[in-house]
Amino acid sequence: MKYIKLLLSILGFFILNAVGLSLSSILMDYLSKYFKSEYAFNIISYLLMLLVVIANLKLFVRKNTMEFIKLKFKDIDKREIIKVMGIAFLINVGVTAFLLIIKKYYVYNFIWNKLYIEDIVGVLITGIIVSFSSVVIEELMLRGFLFNKIPLRNEIVIIFVAWVYAMFNVIEKGFNLLQFLNVFLFAILLNVIYVKYKNIIYTIAFNFIWYFTSNFIFSLNLEPSNIEVPSVINLIYGNYDILSGGEYGIFGSIVFLIVLMILDIVLIRKMGIFNKEI
């Protein structure tokens, strides 16, 4: 009976979030005609989605919510936060730069070639808010709620939550083996960071830098005509292959797979996660 209640609670949380996020999307689509600025529309849309997830989290975790999800502002080590964010940025830029060097990606243009300074500021501010909202939504649902709701050993939960995250991506983007493996290993990395620091702020920091870099520092499209919201550096790719990752970006690249495998193995061995309980 205990596990049935637990399962129903987890399903209820995700179903209610899915309904709430869908309704917020419908509402914003209806209100879109009243927005003169696309930047303002995107910001309000993502902040509304964030409020939906926070409200649902509070509904399902009514007592000591911040303690449950391990949101600890007082336990932040500034040097560690900077290190975590730096690692996220260097991995993303490093893999992208390598694919540029071997000519799997090409630079189409830079943001200043197309927009005025006021538009550039708008894009970057929007990017910061959208990236933060998207990442917090993901972290609250997966690491904050699901990870802590499962009453199993850390090593099992690390794998299970990573699998759930990878399956969500399959539902959203379709199945591609390399993309699935990369998303799974990326989620393993985030879960390991969560276990290491016991503080969701570190995974938010890592994921925020990753999301912002992937979507607003770099953008990747097959053709220049597909570029909707320009990033700082707009990239295009040729035909899909296992090096470029095609439409999946570096998440579809075997180069990124190798990097993630090495990083995950090093961290897991260093922390001894599969040898002892953290």
Structure description:
With 278 residues, the chain is mainly α. It has one domain. It is 69% helix and 5% strand. The chain has helices spanning 2-31, 38-60, 65-69, 78-101, 117-149, 154-173, 177-197, 200-217, 254-271; strands at 105-110, 218-221, 233-237. A 3-stranded mixed sheet has the order 1-3-2. Helix 1 (2-31) packs antiparallel against helix 2, helix 5 crosses helix 6 (154-173) and helix 7 runs antiparallel to helix 8 (200-217). The longest helix has 33 residues, at 117-149. The radius of gyration is 19 Å and the shape is globular. The mean pLDDT is 89.
Keywords:
single chain, 278 residues, 3-stranded mixed β-sheet, mainly alpha
Briefly, what is this?
The protein is mainly alpha-helical. Helices cover 69% and strands 5% of the residues.
Helix content: 55-70%
Fraction of residues in β-strands: 5-15%
Q: Stretches where pLDDT falls below 50 for ≥5 residues?
A: none
In quaternary terms, these chains amount to single chain
- Gross morphology: globular
Instruction: Compute the number of strand runs.
Output: 3
Q: Structural class of the helices, strands and pairings?
A: mainly alpha
Mean pLDDT: 89
* Largest sheet geometry: 3 strands, mixed
